Amino acid sequence: MVPIPSYYEFQNPVKVIAGKVAVDNVAYELDQLGAKRPLVITDKGVVAAGLLQVVVDGFAGSEVAIGAIFEDTPPDSSNHVVNAVAKMFREAGCDSIVAVGGGSVLDTAKAVNILAAEGGDDLLQYMGAEILKKPLKPFIAIPTTAGTGSEVTLAAIIANPDKNIKMAFTSARLYPNVAILDPRMTLTMPPKITAATGMDALTHAVEAYSCKQKNPLSDAYATAAIAMIRDYLPRAVADGSDKDARFAMANASLLAGVSFSNAMVGVVHSLAHAVGGVCHVPHGVGNAIFLPIGMEYNMDVVADIYAELLLPLAGPDVYLATPPERRAQKSVDTIKALNRELNRLSGLPLTLKDAGVPKGKLEDCAKAAINDGSHTFNPKELEYNDALSLIRKAYE
Ligand SMILES: NC(=O)c1ccc[n+]([C@@H]2O[C@H](COP(=O)([O-])OP(=O)(O)OC[C@H]3O[C@@H](n4cnc5c(N)ncnc54)[C@H](O)[C@@H]3O)[C@@H](O)[C@H]2O)c1
Ligand SMILES: [Fe+2]
Questions:
Q1: pTM over 0.90
Q2: Ligand 1 neighbourhood includes 151 CB (under 6 angstroms)
Q3: Strand, helix or coil for residue 139
Q4: Considering only CA atoms, which residue is closest to atom 7 of ligand 1?
Q5: Last residue of a domain, one of 135, 151, 185
Q6: pLDDT tens digits, one per residue of 262-277
């Protein structure tokens, strides 16, 4: 019997445009939103891959003209970067935002939008959940990685380098107006980033399906995402030019994004945010390492839920061949095997040590994990000693 919560909320207000040459609609969509002068936000890697040009070409022949371009978003960008880009938005007289990049770019753009709409020049004033009062500027998200799902989520994660933490901004106002998925935009992603970002998407789906706020709608998105990731992530990592696999992963990432934007995530994200904030481990790498470890931690509380996940994770043959009482552990083992395959294909790190975390930083990471809000929705409480033992387990 599938339990249904006695109360839940669900929303996905983002218009999705997906398919070959979908980016060519960008100017039309801005026009529909009443915008005439967008600020385009991107990063150097995206520009070097020739992807900014694809978007610029999308404005040819349109009355909508790019007002300014910011191409220096750093990975895990910070409140300082956001403050500077918001200033650029105002000085260039822009009225809307187009974000072209991975989660770092999309989240920077969301945070810039907070300052563009609310005014002020210090993002820290707006940290927290549902404190934004004014409608945001028209905003189009064009993801170039397939992982964060930020194009359909209500969250922006921004680093605070002065405190070595990652800050979460969540508000229903932060949803982009339009998300554009175009297979051309992810073809150039290198194998290791493809693997890491794909594991971020898988972590969103698994945590959304097993956390306290799960509900029938977020579950449907999560299981659809997991099955696509099972079939297409190794293919996209093995052969980056496989357009079908790239487009499937873009869809899977979006599905997982809708799922966790409503259900939320859990301990795996708190641990990944911690090693990201303290030691700059890329978000997807942290999630890949902690996903099986976090599942084993939660196992005594949600084994039945993990057992159900074996079907999308491993497919019907494996599900039917596995006795019911062994399905939950088999789900964890399937994810460990996927990590090993991605390691073989792309060098995705399997331990914190391989990801460059110094042994002397483990306690700092555990402190940061406890202070991170993601584990609020985890099915099981997480205390400092638990976090430290999970981090030690992940070390080597
Ligand atoms: N808002 C959310 O809901 C949410 C969810 C998960 C993660 N995040 C945040 O997203 C950030 C991580 O984003 P990410 O994993 O997408 O990585 P990223 O945006 O940091 O990009 C990683 C690298 O890949 C390069 N790159 C991106 N697309 C490329 C392409 N198509 N071809 C070649 N190179 C490309 C970039 O230039 C960059 O150097 C973290 O800060 C994380 O906390 C946000
Ligand atoms: Fe994530």
A1: yes
A2: no
A3: strand
A4: 148
A5: 185
A6: 999 999 999 999 999 9
